[in-house]
């Protein structure tokens, strides 16, 4: 294993908080492979660049020979993480969670190394808990402690409902750490309280408490809120190079520093030089954003694909051309045809609701003309090109 200082230079890159900070070096100095836990609840179908921020940090540990312990929260996803929520969230069904989990597993390989890696489902140890074990777990923490958590405190003060099930979520996440003997747990900056609960429970179950390590939350393409599939401001790691390149190019200029640091995973010295150049005018924002887009795409598809993605972007955005290769899709039976269902079936959007939103925003076009209705005649659709923005295209075939 490399010297501790060499590891720390990489492992602390871009990190928000380490608690307790000095203990990370102590664990590394033991010379043994550490067990580094990251828990992700399958509540949506795609691994986004926002999730990839913590996944890439987990990969950094792998590269130094430490074991990545990736927890797929198939049980906790059905409870629902209350972090940052101002009201009780909708519960997902077991079938929804299972479908999302199956979709995510293959995508993790876009970021993580195949070894050393453990992928565990927390239903393995949470589902079998009986009432006596649940009561034992609840005895480890007081209600006063739970109400120290910011979002719970605000809801309590505002007389908004907090279910007992929501109180259970951080305890269940903490039990994941107990079950896998985590040395370190990674998470977004909004997860620090949950990670600290893992420390509490490990101690109270007679184990050595984990180190909590958080990463900043990546701001999404809207430039305002954290990247989220529910908000539609995301890039998925599975998106084709040309689409990924184009989406990065739509990013507000002011976010380039954060994205170089977190999404492109560049060293701090390099990012500082880029930020200085943008501030003093010695770097052109457009060319700098192209560099950012190439680096992000290269992480997931390689340099050759990044160059091809850039060329495709130029053909569409600079030269006004339709892409050389367009996905073809057969029209479904019937007339008229429901466009949100068609777009979802063809994979241009994640859901019919997203398609309806894009139609209402004027982002969907048929043969270059803006679509304003959710249904369209078969005659107008047959052989035409349906597009969303300038990155998603679909040629419609009439097989009837």
N→C terminal distance: 63 Å
Q: Name the helicity range.
A: 40-55%
Mean pLDDT: 88
Could you name the ranges where pLDDT drops below 50 across 5 or more consecutive residues?
none
Q: Judging from the principal axes of the Cα atoms, what is the shape?
A: globular
Total domain modules:
3
Rg:
23 Å
Structural class: alpha/beta
**Which sheet architecture does the biggest sheet show?**
6 strands, mixed
CATH homologous superfamily title of the largest domain: HUPs
CATH A-level architecture of the largest domain: 3-Layer(aba) Sandwich
Which short descriptors sum up this protein?
single chain; 400 residues; alpha/beta; Rossmann fold; Structural Genomics Hypothetical 15.5 Kd Protein In mrcA-pckA Intergenic Region, Chain A; 3 domains; six-stranded mixed beta sheet; five-stranded mixed beta sheet; 19 helices
Report what the structure shows.
By secondary structure, this protein is α/β, with parallel strands linked by helices. The chain has three domains: 4-215, Rossmann fold; 241-318, no CATH class; 327-397, Structural Genomics Hypothetical 15.5 Kd Protein In mrcA-pckA Intergenic Region, Chain A (Roll). The protein has 19 helices and 13 strands. The strands form three sheets. It has a six-stranded mixed beta sheet with strand order 1-6-5-2-3-4, with helices on both faces. A five-stranded mixed beta sheet has the order 7-13-12-9-10.
């Amino acid at each position: 294993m490399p010297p501790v200082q060499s590891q720390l230079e990489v492992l602390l890159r871009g990190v928000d908080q380490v608690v307790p900070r000095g203990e990370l070096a102590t664990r590394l100095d033991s010379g043994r492979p550490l067990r580094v836990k990251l828990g992700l609840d399958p509540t949506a179908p795609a691994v986004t660049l926002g999730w990839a921020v913590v996944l890439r940090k987990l990969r950094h540990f792998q590269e130094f020979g430490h074991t990545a312990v990736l927890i797929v929260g198939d049980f906790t996803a059905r409870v629902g993480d209350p972090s940052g929520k101002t009201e009780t969230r909708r519960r997902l069904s077991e079938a929804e969670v299972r479908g999302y989990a199956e979709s995510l597993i293959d995508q993790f390989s876009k970021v993580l190394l195949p070894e050393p890696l453990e992928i565990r489902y927390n239903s393995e140890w949470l589902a079998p808990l009986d009432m006596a074990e649940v009561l034992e777990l609840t005895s480890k923490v007081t209600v006063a402690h739970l109400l120290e958590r910011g979002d719970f405190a605000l809801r309590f003060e505002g007389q908004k409902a907090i279910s007992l099930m929501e109180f259970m979520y951080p305890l269940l996440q903490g039990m994941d750490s107990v079950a896998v003997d985590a040395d370190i747990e990674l998470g977004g900056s909004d997860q620090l309280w949950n990670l600290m609960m893992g420390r509490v429970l490990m101690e109270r179950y007679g184990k050595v408490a984990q180190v909590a390590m958080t990463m900043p939350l990546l701001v999404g393409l809207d430039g305002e809120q954290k990247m989220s599939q529910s908000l539609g401001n995301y890039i998925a790691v599975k998106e084709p190079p040309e689409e990924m390149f184009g989406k990065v190019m739509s990013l507000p200029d002011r976010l380039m520093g954060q994205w170089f640091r977190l999404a492109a995973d560049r060293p701090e010295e390099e990012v500082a030089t880029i930020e200085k150049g943008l501030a003093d005018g010695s770097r052109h924002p457009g060319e700098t954003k192209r560099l950012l887009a190439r680096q992000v795409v290269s992480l997931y598809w390689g340099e050759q694909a990044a160059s091809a993605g850039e060329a495709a972007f130029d053909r569409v955005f600079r030269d006004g051309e339709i892409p050389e290769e367009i996905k073809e899709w057969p029209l479904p039976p019937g007339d008229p045809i429901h466009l949100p269902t068609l777009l979802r079936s063809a994979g241009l959007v994640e859901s019919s609701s997203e398609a309806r939103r894009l139609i209402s925003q004027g982002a969907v076009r048929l043969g270059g003309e803006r679509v304003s209705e959710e249904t369209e005649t078969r005659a107008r659709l047959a052989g035409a090109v349906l597009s969303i923005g300038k990155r998603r295209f679909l040629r419609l075939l009439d097989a009837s």
